[in-house]
Design brief:
The complex is a heterodimer. Chain A is built from 10 helices and 5 strands, in the order βαβαβαβαβαααααα. Chain A is an alpha/beta fold. By secondary structure, chain B is of the alpha+beta class. Chain B is about 60% helix and about 10% strand. Chain B is built from 18 helices and 5 strands. In chain B, strand 1, helix 17 and strand 2 form a beta-alpha-beta unit. The chains are: A alpha/beta, B alpha+beta. The interface between A and B is medium-sized, with 20 and 23 residues.
Chain lengths: ~230, ~475
């Protein structure tokens, strides 16, 4: 589960662990927190809540949850929102996974929190079942890409496959592009696997690799793309 | 004075030898460039008249770029309003101009020569239609408008006339005290140059324009200052020796320096206060705009939602529509060109969402300008979205990708699926509106349907590569 590559432990769909997944919800809207809590399945145990950057860092350090559901926009701290929470909990990143949750689908919000270290991003409008699914996936070490995030990735990395000579961090491989395209088209991991005749585990590997590139790449176009959208 | 309406506006051409004046003039008058240049050279021989005319045009006529830029914003040149088709002029009862409504004519300009370059006002021909939008209040008698708006030209003209008068007087043998007149003129001219940029339009321009323009402003200020100082020096030194003048100059500079040193902190403080106040005002305006927007949209929707709380379908629909509207307002990229393909697809998605109630999520990568075949693509995707929303009964995923000019759209739903072969021949939705339409416009369409959902794929090859803006 701590595999950085995030290949998951079982490799078939969302993993339903024997013990409940311990989760902290960080969001400044109490209404949203309680709504989300009610929506999550019983196999998710909400062990803490926080409304500001400082509270979040404190609660995460104290509870050491497996997954943090993290709103991108948060009051407090230095104004960095979710990004700052992740930075403040950097020492826990090996055991605690962050799933960004945002009402905003602006590229700068999403990509900045992903680059800070979040393992995935979902919009607040998705259903409780989908969020539960995403929590299991992130807890299992996988990345969670919404169609929109896949769209951002394709936009940032370009839609042409990598040459062999390219720095591997700076481009997506042909297979990764295919996976991203299918996710952008609304395919679930399972459907992607079926469409490409590969295993779900392989899909997860590809998605995790893309996430890693998104987080680490200093590709010229990516920085330019980010600068144009005022991310840097 | 009646001139052809179709005449291109007088702007300095980029095809230039010195400043593009002759080429621009030739284009404007419809004469060959060569003859204009020769004429200008000949006129220069005639006592430098051509040189003066050239310099005048150089100063007063904008380049094509400037013209376009200013046209988009406002009439910057004081000459422009005189020649634009301003209702205040053409309809004015006092208008003495026989050629009402001709944008190329300068109704009040007595000098026929002026008519030649008057249309060169930045917003000559093409902007004529905008005349009324910036025209000062149409009500006041036009002579008042004129005296306020063209005061600068009138003053300049009067100054030139004065100079001409003095020269003629000298030729006729009248003794004119040039020794005092020239310095005085220098002082006046310098002050005029320096103050000219305090003029409202210049100030507006300086605020939001590039540094280059600001540099120009500083240069003008420096030039004006130099003129004034030189004028004063000449005037003062006329009454005493140079030595005394230098001493006096030194003394005054030291005094000035001391005064500046003492007053600087105050000036800085005032400046900062002014800046803070201005920033505050800008924030206030922004806040007011946001408040107005929220009131017009979000509050109204919330009221509607309360009144329809019983109807879940309506509430969801209203909330989605409001969310979409707010999103487009908040996250819209102002630098992005409007009316591109992705905007159209999003608009169509919104429309489908509104009419059928199921969410339509549009993800787009790359973008391209709309063409006729892209419009067909939009219509075909609309049909596909309608089908997906109607029969799929859940969220519809739409993915648009433009890459090297090639456009692909995928519309996916999670409904029970259908078999194209079993669709009755008379149902035209899929066959005609999607597949047929795409084929007619050189595109392709395919439909994959499984019990877990249906996906429509539409493709349009790159027809006009120059329109391609897709990322590669």
């Amino acid at each position: 589960m701590n595999n950085v590559q995030g290949t998951g432990i079982q490799g078939t769909g969302p993993i339903r662990p024997a013990t409940p997944v311990r989760v902290v919800i960080v969001d400044d809207h109490a209404i949203f927190r309680s709504g989300l809590k009610a929506d999550l399945s019983e196999s998710i145990q909400v062990v803490g809540e926080a409304a500001t950057v400082e509270q979040a860092i404190a609660v995460i350090a104290q509870e050491r949850p497996e997954v943090v559901l993290l709103d991108v926009h948060l009051p407090g701290g230095l104004g960095g929102g979710g990004r700052e929470v992740i930075a403040g909990s950097a020492s826990l990143l090996a055991t605690t996974k962050f799933l960004a949750l945002s009402v905003s689908d602006a590229a700068e919000d999403v990509v900045s929190v992903i680059r800070a270290g979040a393992r995935g991003y979902v919009t607040k409008t998705i259903s409780g079942a989908e969020i539960t699914d995403a929590v299991f996936r992130v807890a299992g070490g996988d990345a969670v890409f919404s169609p929109r995030l896949a769209g951002f990735v394709l936009d940032a990395f370009g839609t042409a496959p990598a040459d062999i000579a390219d720095d591997e961090l700076d481009r997506l491989s042909a297979r990764e592009l295919e996976v991203m395209r299918l996710i952008a088209r609304g395919y679930s991991y399972k459907e992607v696997a079926k469409e490409l005749f590969i295993s779900i585990k392989t899909v997860e590997t590809h998605v995790s690799a893309v996430l890693r590139k998104l987080q680490l790449s200093s590709r010229h176009e990516l920085t330019k793309w980010a600068a144009e959208r005022r991310l840097l | 004075m009646t001139t052809a309406l179709t005449r291109p506006p007088l702007v300095r051409s980029s095809d230039r030898v010195i400043a593009g004046v002759c080429a621009g003039l030739a284009a404007h008058l419809g004469w060959p460039v060569k003859s204009v240049r020769i004429g200008m050279a000949l006129a220069t021989l005639a006592g430098g008249a051509g040189l003066a005319f050239y310099a005048w045009l150089w100063i007063m006529v904008p380049t094509a770029d400037e013209s376009a830029r200013r046209n988009a914003r406002r009439p910057a040149s004081p000459i422009a309003p005189a020649v634009s088709l301003d209702p205040a002029f053409s309809a004015g009862p006092h208008s003495a101009a026989p050629s009402q409504g001709s944008p190329a004519a300068a109704p009040w300009w007595g000098n026929p020569d002026a008519g030649a370059f008057a249309p060169g006002g930045v917003s000559g021909g093409p902007a004529a239609g905008y005349g009324s939008s910036y025209g000062a209040p149409v009500r006041p008698p036009w002579f008042r408008v004129r005296s306020m708006r063209y005061g600068k030209e009138i003053m300049l003209g009067a100054g030139l006339l004065l100079v001409a008068g003095i020269m003629i007087a000298r030729l006729l043998g009248v003794d004119v005290p040039l020794e005092t007149l020239i310095p005085a003129a220098a002082v006046l001219g310098g002050a005029a140059i320096a103050w000219m940029q305090l003029d409202e339009t210049r100030r507006a321009g300086l605020v939001d324009k590039t540094k280059a323009d600001q540099a120009g402003g500083w240069a003008r200020l420096a030039a004006g200052l130099a003129l004034v100082v030189a004028g004063v020096l000449v005037m003062v030194s006329g009454s005493g020796s140079w030595e005394q003048t230098w001493l006096a100059l030194l003394a005054s500079v030291s005094v000035l320096g001391g005064v500046v040193l003492v007053l600087l902190p105050w000036a800085l403080k005032f400046w900062r206060d002014l800046e803070t106040e201005r920033a505050g005002r800008i924030r206030e305006t922004e806040r007011a705009e946001i408040a107005a927007h929220l009131h017009d949209s979000v509050l109204q929707t919330l009221a509607l939602i309360q009144r329809r709380a019983g109807n879940e379908h309506d509430v969801v629909r209203l909330a989605r529509a409001q969310e979409r509207e707010l999103r487009s307002w908040l996250f819209q990229d102002p630098g992005k060109e409007a009316g591109q393909l992705s905007d159209r697809i999003k608009a169509v998605g919104a429309e489908v969402e509104d009419s059928l109630g199921n969410a339509v999520e549009v993800v787009s990568v790359g973008d391209t300008a709309m063409t006729e075949s892209h419009e067909a693509l939009v219509q075909a995707s609309r049909e596909a979205m309608l089908n997906a929303s109607r029969h799929g009964g859940g969220t519809v995923s739409v993915y648009l990708e433009v890459s090297d000019g090639r456009t692909e759209i995928f519309i996916k739903d999670r409904g029970p699926g259908f078999d194209l072969q079993e669709v009755p021949e008379d149902r035209l939705g899929v066959r005609e509106s999607i597949i047929g339409r795409m084929k007619r416009h050189g595109g392709s369409a395919s439909i994959t349907s499984t019990p877990n959902g249906t996906e429509v794929r539409l493709g349009m090859p790159a027809l006009q590569p120059e329109n391609a803006e897709g990322k590669s």
